[in-house]
Design brief:
Strand order of the largest sheet: 5-4-6-7-3-8
Structural class: alpha/beta
Helix content: 25-40%
Strand content: 15-25%
Length: 567
């Protein structure tokens, strides 16, 4: 399971409105289906399986699922599906409008979303089959892959990615931590710049933090390239997707009538892209431009509806993409016990994961702490308070000499963090942040002590900030300000840091502890993961995503027993 979103009035409102608008009689089972579909969409799920246990929103479980199927037939919303014949001909929807829902082999879904999903998949398949113009001979592609192999020590799958980008309109590059995705991207782009001089490259990611990490990794990877090529690659702009598409709140300034001015776009952390954002990106892409999608399919699905990367992992989708889909499987970075734990989670091997935890030693880079339900380990609070003290000391030094201490202060933010799947509860992020800030917690960043980490909760393009960026409270000439890295949307140029007035951060939260969802695209030296008991089972991707945020050390904190284990 994933953290449950708050209930909304969407389901009941639609259950009342849709039958009336379509001129059909009220049917309790149909109303339940509408409510369940609405709840699924809030969870980010586009399909409601009509098999298995009754989903959230279904009250008449004794009629599930056959009674609900018959309700679709009676109202005419199952036309074209292979359903048992109804006793009488079903009424046609009012105004001959198509039904608002569709049936497929995967279940029931809203027509609008399923059509958008299929349209998006079809466009990705078209790009995967498209040949880049002008075409390169097989000999030139092979020679480019051999040069890339010599420079970057690429394996056969990485070389296949280089060849694919020199010939196809789309490349989907997947792989877990340490499998060389970034080094592969560097060599892919270098090969393109060698064979197609003058092409306009652009790098992007869903969040500012992910964009900054991508830019830094690409720049670092340039050390394997000839200096002119490395400089050209480092000069490629790197932005958030919202800035690239010129987000306006109610839409995007880039679209089919005003496409992006680029030849090749690389999008990192694609696991975070929901269906509407991917559809908007494809609409803004020039017809002949190349697209590279990079991500770890085992990470958390996006908060919004439609997990595009997970959808692309379906066997039928991968078969349609053909050589455009490349999964990196060789691990080049030794992350010790953390990597082994992540591997068990990737494979869905819960027993093996639990055995691995039981065999950890004090020298491993992963620790497992068990604590009574509702009680936080004292050592967790000690580590957080030590981190809080260090941040406060650096913030005090910053007030005296900002130029000298800005980088050190901001880098300390990535030293330690607590991640949890939930916001509320005794093991939720709110309780931890409140524990550290006391009475000041509810007053906002203008009243928090210097050194307090601050999480930006919205895209604020006018401030050069994106949802997920983390800054820190400082005292500037007696006034509270928030210190962030410079705009992640200015490429490699621009100011290194920036100060933001607290009043311009309407959506800000303390960030000693943050949710696992908000940590995507970030990395920390030390990650402490709180996994409370769940009513069902946690989605294994939650824990996988949390543990793979750690660069050096991970600590997993669980209740005693096995109620916290993932599915």
């Amino acid at each position: 399971m994933s953290p449950q979103p708050p209930l909304t009035p969407l389901g009941p409102a639609l259950a009342e409105a849709l039958p009336r608008l379509y001129g059909i009689g009220s049917d309790p089972l149909l109303c339940e289906l509408i409510g369940a579909l609405s709840a699924a969409l809030v969870r980010g799920e586009l399909h409601l399986p009509l098999e298995g246990p009754a989903p959230e929103g279904i009250i008449s479980v004794e009629h599930w699922p056959e009674g609900h199927r018959q309700a679709l037939v009676r109202c005419g919303w199952a036309l074209g599906a292979q359903q048992p014949a109804a006793p009488a001909a079903p009424p046609a929807p009012s105004g001959d409008a198509p039904p608002p829902v569709m049936l497929s082999e995967r279940g029931l879904g809203w027509r609008r979303w399923l059509l958008q999903l299929e349209g998006t998949m079809a466009e990705l398949q078209r790009r995967a089959r498209a040949s880049v113009q002008p075409p390169l001979t097989g000999a030139r592609r092979k020679a480019a892959a051999e040069r890339a192999q010599k420079r970057g020590g690429l394996d056969s799958r990485q070389q296949a990615a280089v060849v694919a980008l020199l010939s196809q309109g789309l490349v989907l590059l997947g792989g877990g931590p340490g499998t060389g995705k970034t080094s592969t991207i560097v060599q892919m782009l270098a090969a393109v710049l060698e064979e197609r001089p003058g092409w306009k490259l652009h790098l992007a990611a869903p969040t500012g933090k992910a964009a900054a990490r991508l830019r830094q990794a690409i720049a670092a990877g340039g050390s394997t390239l000839p200096p002119p090529l490395a400089a050209q690659l480092a000069a490629s702009p790197c932005t958030t997707l919202h800035r690239l598409l010129e987000s306006r709140g109610d839409g995007f300034g880039r679209h089919r009538q005003r496409p992006l001015a680029l030849d090749l776009l690389v999008v990192d952390e694609v696991s975070m892209l929901d269906l509407p954002l991917m559809a908007a990106l494809l609409e803004a892409m020039p017809t002949d431009a190349q697209l590279v999608l990079v991500g770890d399919p085992d990470q958390l699905a996006p908060v919004g509806p439609g997990a595009v990367l997970q959808e692309l992992q379906a066997p039928a989708r991968l078969q349609e993409l053909g050589d455009a889909a490349i999964e990196l499987i060789t691990t080049y970075r030794n992350d010790g016990a953390l990597a082994l734990a992540a591997g068990h989670l990737r494979r869905g091997d819960t027993p093996g994961f639990l055995d691995h935890l039981s065999e950890l030693s004090s020298t491993d880079n992963l620790s497992w702490w068990r604590s009574p339900v509702g009680r936080l380990p004292a050592e967790l609070l000690e580590r957080l308070r030590a981190h809080q003290t260090r941040l406060a000391q650096l913030a005090a030094s910053w007030s005296v000499d900002p130029e000298r201490f800005s980088r050190e202060l901001l880098e300390e933010l990535e030293h330690c963090v607590v991640l949890a799947p939930t916001r509320r509860g005794s093991w939720g992020v709110q309780a931890l942040n409140q524990r550290l800030l006391g009475d000041d917690w509810g007053r906002g960043p203008a009243f928090w002590p210097p050194g307090t980490p601050v999480l930006c909760q919205r895209n604020l393009p006018e401030q050069g900030l994106a949802n997920g960026d983390v800054g820190v409270v400082v005292d500037s000439d007696g006034q509270r300000r928030l210190l962030f890295w410079g705009s992640q949307d200015l490429g490699v140029a621009g100011e290194e840091t920036r100060l933001v007035h607290p009043s311009r951060m309407a959506a800000a939260e303390a960030a000693f502890a943050i949710t696992i969802h908000k940590s995507q695209g970030s990395q920390y030296q030390q990650v402490l993961v709180l996994m409370p008991e769940a009513e069902g089972r946690w989605d294994r991707r939650l824990l996988y995503t949390a543990l793979t945020r750690a660069r050096r050390q991970g600590v997993l904190i669980t209740p005693e027993g096995q109620g916290w284990l993932p599915d």
